[in-house]
């Protein structure tokens, strides 16, 4: 019942709030380790979150873990969808991180799970048995963040992104990359109780 009503009971990324206003927060995130997979959504009938099963298998969320130990890895939150205008750019706990990139016609998605904080280096995490899953380290980073409830539809996300970018630039912050969408709840959480965040990297 708690998850239906939006209770977040898994590990989430730690961060330091550097600045807070009515429009956004400026947060600094420490280094982390992520598992990611890059794919063409057409592989999954156009489902942009199609890589979720691949990563869920790696950590053992759907049964036996698909890693060489094998070791079950705790799920974290949020799920993060990262968008990129450039051709495939692989860089970023929950989060599942999904990055979108395209070369004009072909659109690729990169989805990531941020691993629990006990994994401090990429080599600390169990090695995936599926070669499509890549373990990577994400350095310290700074974001302008806005939090909102409801369904994170494309229209809502675009509106939030534009408003956040304008607010950041108005206050003298320099945007340094494309936004990420962080979703903290499973699909069965009632929309009114869902927690979503738009995260825009800044210098």
Automatic annotation (TrEMBL):
Signal peptide feature range: none
InterPro entries tied to this protein: Reg_factor_effector_dom_sf (IPR011256), SOUL_heme-bd (IPR006917)
Domain of life: Eukaryota
Family classification: Belongs to the HEBP family.
PANTHER family given in the database record: HEME-BINDING PROTEIN-RELATED, SOUL HEME-BINDING FAMILY PROTEIN
Protein name per its UniProtKB record: SOUL heme-binding protein
Species whose genome carries this gene: Protea cynaroides
């Amino acid at each position: 019942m708690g998850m239906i009503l939006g209770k977040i009971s898994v590990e989430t990324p730690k961060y330091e709030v550097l600045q807070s206003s009515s429009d956004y927060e400026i947060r600094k995130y420490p280094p982390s380790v992520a598992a990611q997979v890059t794919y063409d959504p057409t592989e999954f009938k156009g489902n942009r979150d199609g890589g979720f099963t691949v990563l869920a298998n790696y950590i053992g969320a759907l049964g036996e873990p698909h890693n060489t130990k094998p070791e079950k890895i705790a799920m974290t939150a949020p799920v993060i969808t990262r968008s990129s205008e450039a051709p495939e750019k692989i860089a970023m706990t929950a989060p599942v991180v999904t990055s979108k990139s395209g070369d004009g016609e072909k659109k690729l998605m990169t989805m990531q799970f941020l691993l629990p904080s006990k994994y401090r280096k990429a080599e600390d995490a169990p090695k995936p048995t599926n070669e499509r899953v890549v373990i990577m380290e994400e350095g310290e980073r700074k974001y302008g963040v806005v939090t909102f409830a409801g369904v994170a539809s494309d229209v809502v996300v675009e509106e939030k992104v534009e408003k956040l970018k304008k607010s950041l630039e108005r206050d003298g912050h320099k945007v340094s990359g494309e936004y990420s969408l962080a979703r903290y709840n499973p699909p069965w959480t009632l929309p009114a109780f869902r927690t979503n965040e738009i995260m825009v990297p800044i210098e």
